[in-house]
Structure formats: C-alpha cells, structure tokens
Amino acid sequence: MTDRRLHLLPYDYLVIGYCLFMTLLILAVGRPLGNYTYEIIFYSSMAAVAALVIRYVGEAPTGWRRFIRLLYPALMFTFFYRATSGTMFLLFDRFFDSSLVSFEYSVLGFEPSLVIDRSYLSPFLNELFSAGYFAYYLMIPALLVYLYLKRKDELIRRFLTAACIAFFVSYFLFFLYPIEGPRYYLAGQYLHPIEGPFFRKLVNIAIDRGAVHGGCMPSSHVAVGLIVLAYTFKISRKIGWLLVPVVIGLAIGTVWGRFHYASDVVVGALIGVGAIILVDRRYDRWIKRRPNPVAYHSLGVEHVS
C-alpha cells in the first residue's frame, strides 16, 4: 500500500501557521472588518497554496516539482512583505517614531542619520553604502540558486526555515510597534539629499516600487542578511569572509539611506542571530529524525574550504 501521509517540513508549519494566525487575528481585532477584506483573502489563499504544494507536489519530487516544493516559501516572501502595509495599523492608529527617537537620543545622545546628513555625506560613501543596501536584493536569490544547482536541498530547507522565522517575527513587530522610519519622520530636518550616480539610483527605484510605508522596526534586511551570511559560511569560509563587509555595508546602508533607525538594525540583528541559533539547535528535532550521512552530504559541510 502506498504511504499517503503528508510529510511537512518546518517551513511548511511556519508558512501555514503564519497565514492562519494573521487571518484569525484580523478577524478578531480588525475593525472595521470590511477594511481588511483583501488581507483575509490574501492570507487564506497563501495558506491554501502552501497546502496544495505540500499535498500534490510529492515527498521527493524532481524537475519543476522539486523547484516548487523546495522554494515556494522564497517565492512568497515579497508578497508577505507587501501585505504588511494593510495591517500596519491593525492594533494601533499611529506610528511610534517619536518614542523611538527619544530613546535613541537618551542612549546615544544624537540621531545617527542626522549626524550623517550634517557631516559625512559624499558621492563615494553614498554609493558605497547604497551598494551594500542594494546587495540585499541579490543575496537571497544568489544563495538559493547556488544551493539549488548544487542540489544541497537540506541546506535550502534549513536556510528557508531560518528566513521564515526572521521574516515572520519581523512582520509581527511591524504592527506591534509601527515605525515609519527617519526618511518620513525626520524628513524636515535633513539638510542635504543623498546623491549617487548608480547604486543610489537603483536603491531609489527599489524603494519607490516595492517599499511599504512603515515596517521599519525591526530591519528584516539585516536579520535575513545575517542568515544569508551564516549559511554562506556553511558552503565556503572564503566566500563567507568576502560577504562580511557586504553585510556590514547593508547594516550601515539602512541607516545611511534614512530607511531605518539604529535600533531597527540592532533588533533585526538579534532576530537574525536568534533564528540561526534556533534552526541550528532544533531543526533535527523538528523533523523528528537524526542527522544521517545523506543529510550531511546535502549540507555540504565536508566541502567547507
């Protein structure tokens, strides 16, 4: 008899759980409920899509089925991010930038992006940190394409589990503590525009076309950038060390570009590190099996250079 039991991976539980939680939360507290019709349909539909993938693609698929089964969470991340714009004021009716800025002044004695505006802007530095920021949009696809072509499926599963944790925790905080960011809240205090001939323009295009208003606390860019870095080290230490300054540039670039406060970066980094540690320590228990030689081979640990 064919075993027709469904074998769910950790990221399956995370994707479906996140969608169902958001749907139920909106139904419970979203008022007026008619304003959240799109979000209810969206999260319900994404849960249904994930369930269909799990049910019909199969346990050990090949070809395009392998692509869908392995990578479907990554294909959803952008849509999940965009959907946060509709739930930004699910619990509160305003942004809390004033309290966050006051906190940073009490700790640092200054607001970093204002200091950068007064003293450090230059075409070279603008381009350098814009390049670091823009690299975020290439990191996840580059890592996943490499792992997919090398058939390191187990490493893909672990990476996407950590990424799901980081993204979904970040998206919860978006509406638990709504922050619009310095480019909005401090707009009237900046004296100089941030200019650059290439990467700054690319960043502006990406932000204008894809960013939501709000969703700054925490920086999910930094959280997932650290996860990409950690899993790159699992493949190659040489490439990992080359990526370190890029991730540092990403973290600085979020503040330099006026997209995030320093606090957003710190909290994002903590979430990223937490997701890495959690997956490293608990993943094998989650899938209810011991690591085996096949899994370790697919992780590629023995090939670390």
TrEMBL record:
Domain of life assignment: Bacteria
Transmembrane annotation, as ranges: 12-34, 40-58, 70-92, 128-147, 159-179, 211-232, 239-259, 265-283
Record flagged with keyword Transmembrane: yes
Protein's organism: candidate division GN15 bacterium
Keyword Glycosyltransferase listed: no
Annotated keywords: Membrane, Transmembrane, Transmembrane helix
InterPro entries the UniProt entry points to: Aur1/Ipt1, PAP2/HPO_sf
Name of the protein in its database record: Inositolphosphotransferase Aur1/Ipt1 domain-containing protein
Domain Inositolphosphotransferase Aur1/Ipt1, first and last residues per copy: 108-277
CC annotations in GO: membrane
